[in-house]
Specification:
By secondary structure, the protein is an alpha+beta fold. Helix content is about 60%, strand content about 10%. It has helices at about 10-20, 20-25, 35-60, 75-85, 105-120, 120-140, 140-155, 275-315, 340-365, 370-400, 400-405, 410-420, 430-440, 445-460, 465-490, 500-525, 535-550, 550-565, 575, and strands at about 65, 70, 160, 180, 185-195, 205-215, 225-230, 240-245, 260-270. Strand 1 (about 65) and strand 2 (about 70) form a beta hairpin. It is globular, with a radius of gyration of 24 Å. The structure holds flavin-adenine dinucleotide. Flavin-adenine dinucleotide (FAD) binds near residues 162, 164, 170 and 427.
Length: about 575
């Protein structure tokens, strides 16, 4: 059976050794030390494994129920949410001014990795509320902050992100929901939003909707958007003009209610400046993109540990070679067959590298000077980790053979659940365009250059030890390939304005592999100083596997980027109709 063991030792290794985060915390406001952080994560792991994971299958089987505008969730979801809120988990990384515990974002991200491994669909409810907290804290008026922040932080109320409309998905500039200003400073919001996660449910009585909308004098396009907070219940406790018209039947995350919401002159208040709502919403969207990256990591970890466990239990055929001293019998564990070994090393390498990158980015969230790095890392992590999470779940299903295809073992649920993360919160294609066109070409590659310079320092450190010298060389090669491609695009994109969009996906994947090369090299170098020989050997083996079997994929990406193939032919619409 698919089950979850919190990877606390691996998490501690990344936090304490690879990132040396406690040293940075000591210099910051939280004053958190390594042992206290480890205790918090141990407790979080207990919640994830013992309370949350047991309701994962229930959410998939029972799903959500819509009845006359009200949505009920599986009973286990309500029970788990009560314990989550009572345990103070929503407050972990929130400001003490609003009742939070003021712990670093990194601890919160590690918590979310575990929650997502245990139950992706359930975790979307508190995950969105945390994004709303960040958005209101940054852009809410003092009155809105007073009224709502403490109740989000305590977990009493949850929140949603209302962007999508039937005709406006990736292109938010098309959205039509209106906001009419009122003499008392509020707005009346009218329009219909689709696909709203957690738009209606029975975990909390109030739900705070953050709604992208247009004021009457708004210019067209995305520059004319405003953001309004529209609560399900008004401050006097009466119902607001928000109605849930239905929920979607979906491939996965069936316990997450995906709602159509109608706003009928609903009362709301602007968050941020009029017509500058997208800037305010981006605070929530960026937080949500990293949350979605953690969904990918959660699935990847789950895939890795379950694939490994099964591969040692399942005996099929005799292996051509086996480790010295191992027992012989009519059949060997499938973990000994080279094809399976490759898959298992790939899963381990992707999990290790993804965790290092995700935690690094989470650590940087707390460092104002590092926000340029965070802006670049966000689309890469959203896209890379969700793809690896989905592919990892599919690989684990392959390791489980026919049993992986059966419903009762739980793996096929993970494959179905993981798929959405490539689509929502800005599709992975949109992330690639955001990275290359907006964030790299937008400043002529300057911010990326600074990031690459920092990564190159690791190569110099790796070169100092024979065991990691090859990892350092591989890292330098990857960084050089990113630099070359970036320079070519910066120089040539004005002559062929479509070129960046044709190759944005390859560019993002190439950058992602360079980042993984950094993560593997750093883990291996840091592990050399550890007393545990098995750990040292394991991290070195991961770096080697990544270098020899995974990094070659980058060459194909860069080859396609630099080839500057002519524009793709137009498709023949007449042949379709
Ligand atoms: C389960 C679920 C939960 C969701 N939760 C929320 C939520 O809580 N709040 C919310 O507001 N929305 C939510 N969404 C909506 C989700 O964010 C959108 O589905 C997503 O942004 C894509 O929009 P779309 O479906 O309209 O696809 P489209 O925008 O129509 O895109 C279709 C395809 O075209 C590609 N494409 C479009 N434009 C470009 C371009 N310029 N360059 C390259 N490729 C392009 C896309 O990548 C995609 O592959 C949810 C969706 C689902 C299914």
């Amino acid at each position: 059976m698919w089950h979850y063991r919190p990877p606390l030792a691996d998490m501690r290794f990344v936090i304490e050794q690879v990132l040396d985060a406690p040293a940075r915390w000591a210099a910051g406001d939280s004053g958190l030390d390594a042992d206290t952080a480890a205790q918090v994560l141990e407790e979080a792991g207990r919640f994830a494994a013992q309370v949350l994971q047991p309701v994962n299958a229930e959410g998939d089987t029972c799903g959500c129920r819509w009845d006359a505008g009200r949505v009920s969730l599986p009973a286990g979801y309500r029970h788990a949410y009560r314990q989550f809120a009572e345990g103070g988990w929503p407050a972990l990384a929130c400001d003490p001014e609003w009742g939070g515990q003021g712990l670093p974002q990194l601890v919160n991200m590690a918590l979310y990795e575990m929650l997502n491994s245990a139950c992706h669909a359930w975790t979307m409810y508190p995950g969105l509320a945390h994004g709303a907290y960040e958005c209101l804290k940054a852009h809410g008026t003092p009155l809105l902050q007073q009224r709502y922040l403490k109740r989000i932080v305590s977990g009493e109320w949850l929140a949603t992100m209302c962007l999508t409309e039937a005709h406006a998905g990736s292109d938010l500039g098309l959205l039509r929901t209106r906001a009419e200003p009122q003499p008392d400073g509020s707005v009346r919001v009218s329009g219909t939003k689709i696909f709203i996660s957690g738009g209606e449910h029975d975990l909390t009585d109030n739900i705070l909707h953050l709604v992208l909308c247009r004021l009457p004098d708004a210019p067209p396009g995305s520059k004319g958007l405003s953001l309004a907070l529209v609560p399900r219940l008004l401050p006097d406790g009466s119902a607001n003009g928000v109605r849930c018209d239905g929920i979607e039947r979906k491939m996965g995350i069936k316990g997450s209610a995906t709602c159509t919401l109608s706003f009928e002159a609903a009362t709301g208040w602007l968050v941020g400046e009029p017509h500058r709502g997208l800037a305010a919403m981006f605070v929530m969207m960026n937080a949500a993109r990293l949350q979605v990256a953690m969904q990918g990591l959660g699935h990847l970890e789950m895939a890795t540990q379950n694939a490994l466990r099964y591969a040692f239990e399942r005996l099929q055929m005799r292996a051509a070679r086996r480790p010295e001293g191992s027992r012989t019998g009519p059949a060997d564990p499938i973990a000994l067959h080279p094809a399976m070994r490759r898959t298992l090393w790939k899963l381990q390498a992707h999990t290790e590298g993804s965790r290092v990158l995700a935690y690094w980015c989470a650590m940087l969230l707390d460092e104002p000077a590092a926000q340029g790095h965070v802006a670049l890392l966000t689309p890469v992590l959203k896209s890379l980790l969700t793809r690896l999470g989905f592919e990892g779940a599919s690989d684990a299903q392959q390791v489980w053979g026919g049993h992986g295809y059966l419903h009762d073992w739980g793996i096929e649920q993970s494959v179905r659940d993981a798929r959405i993360a490539l689509i929502y919160e800005g599709t992975n294609e949109i992330q690639a365009v955001d990275l290359l066109q907006r964030k790299v070409l937008g400043d002529g590659g300057a911010a990326l250059g600074a990031l690459l310079d920092e990564l190159a320092q690791e190569a110099a450190l790796c070169a100092e030890h024979p065991a990691t010298a090859a990892a350092g060389t591989a890292l330098l090669q990857q960084l050089e390939a990113v630099r070359q491609a970036t320079a070519a695009l910066v120089e040539g994109h004005a002559d062929d304005t479509e070129w960046p969009q044709r190759v944005a996906g390859d560019y993002l994947n190439g950058v992602g592999l360079a980042l993984l090369a950094w993560a593997w090299a750093r883990s291996a170098r840091v592990a050399l100083a550890q007393p545990d020989e098995r750990l040292r050997e394991h991290k070195l083996a991961i770096a080697r596997y990544g270098r020899e079997w995974l990094l070659p994929e980058a060459s194909a990406c860069w080859q396609r980027v630099l080839a500057r193939h002519a524009a793709l032919p137009w498709l023949d619409e007449a042949a379709v109709s």
